[in-house]
Task: inverse folding
């Protein structure tokens, strides 16, 4: 059983509205750098314990992601338990908005798996702390645009570190999950001259990619992709893709994808390093989306947000260098860099400023 008080989170809130069927959990990992920002995942978890474990892990990842994205924001996340195709309604979303509002700005929400910009517009009818809204309501729209762009920047940095050139031209890249982020990543890779192989549990997602790029190859499932002759493995579906079995079969020299929490458990990062696989930490390379929605807080400007997202290339490159200098896996180097920023900048909150 997952224990809330065994985790270093600042606050965990359980939200229940029986009339609409809302069952949600909001987890705030840290507000050292500012209000917590992270999306709302709407997913049919098998149990409440599974949902709690997920939101605790995701909120920690958001704190580290926001720190390394050079944002003055802390980390939080929320999950709504249930099948969004069956129970999502205006009433449920508005009830959820009331719960977010009750935190008085300690947590800003946005889109994630199972939620969309249109949902954020509904939540915003009850809540002031919502980002990732539609363009019609002054928002940033689909955050997967810069998420995919950022993953591509991280992949370029990994390619430079591995092969000496910041390009995927002539490389074989396997993408697992071609939904919101994955299908946009395909576009960047094709434009860069890469050969792309994909898999997805949703046939329609595969069909959409194949309709636009018939040259893209398709394989059947996770094991087939992970064990394929590829140069780069890009997990872009749900977390936990990198488990012991996957690491053993992996032939790629680089792992760089858009999914959150790709490492199934602690120690996987060392297994990858021991096998000579360069892992680009997920919360570093997939931070383009949070950069996009964070920009919305001060009045969205796409060009400004995209320019900031280009910095993911330099941040990823810096992490690889720290890892090499300190003799640790990149995931450890990234954690240290994020923790240093949270500690050094968060300390400034101890300096009293009269308002």
Result:
């Amino acid at each position: 059983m997952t224990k809330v008080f065994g985790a270093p989170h600042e606050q965990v809130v359980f939200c229940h509205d029986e009339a609409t069927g809302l069952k949600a959990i909001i987890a705030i990992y840290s507000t050292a750098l500012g209000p917590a920002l992270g999306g709302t995942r709407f997913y049919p978890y098998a149990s409440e314990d599974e949902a709690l474990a997920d939101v605790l892990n995701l909120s920690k990842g958001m704190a580290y992601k926001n720190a390394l994205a050079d944002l003055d924001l802390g980390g939080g996340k929320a999950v709504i338990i249930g099948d969004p195709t069956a129970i999502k309604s205006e009433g449920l979303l508005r009830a959820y908005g009331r719960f977010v509002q009750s935190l008085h700005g300690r947590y800003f929400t946005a889109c994630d798996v199972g939620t969309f910009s249109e949902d954020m517009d509904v939540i915003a009818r009850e809540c002031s702390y919502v980002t990732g809204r539609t363009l019609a309501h002054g928002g940033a729209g689909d955050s997967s645009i810069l998420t995919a762009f950022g993953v591509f920047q991280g992949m370029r940095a990994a390619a430079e570190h591995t092969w000496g050139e910041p390009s995927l031209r002539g490389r074989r890249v396997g993408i697992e999950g071609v939904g919101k982020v994955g299908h946009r990543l395909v576009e960047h890779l094709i434009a860069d001259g890469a050969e792309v192989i994909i898999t997805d549990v949703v046939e329609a997602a595969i069909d959409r990619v194949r309709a636009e790029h018939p040259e893209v190859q398709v394989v059947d499932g996770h094991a087939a992709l992970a064990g394929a002759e590829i140069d780069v493995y890009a997990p872009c579906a749900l977390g936990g893709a990198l488990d012991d079995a996957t690491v053993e079969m992996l032939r790629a020299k680089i792992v760089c994808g858009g999914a959150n929490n790709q490492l199934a458990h602690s120690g996987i990062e060392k297994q990858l390093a021991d096998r000579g696989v360069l892992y680009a930490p997920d919360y570093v390379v997939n931070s383009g989306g949070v950069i996009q929605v964070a920009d919305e807080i001060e009045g969205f400007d796409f060009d400004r947000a995209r320019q900031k997202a280009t910095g993911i290339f330099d941040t990823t490159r810096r992490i690889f260098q720290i890892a090499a200098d300190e003799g640790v896996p990149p995931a450890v180097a990234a954690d240290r860099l994020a923790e240093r920023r949270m500690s050094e900048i968060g300390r400034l909150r101890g300096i009293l400023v009269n308002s």
Observations:
- The chain has a mean pLDDT of 95.
- The CA atoms of residues 18 and 92 lie 10 Å apart.
- The first strand starts at residue 11 and ends at 17.
- The longest helix spans residues 48-68.
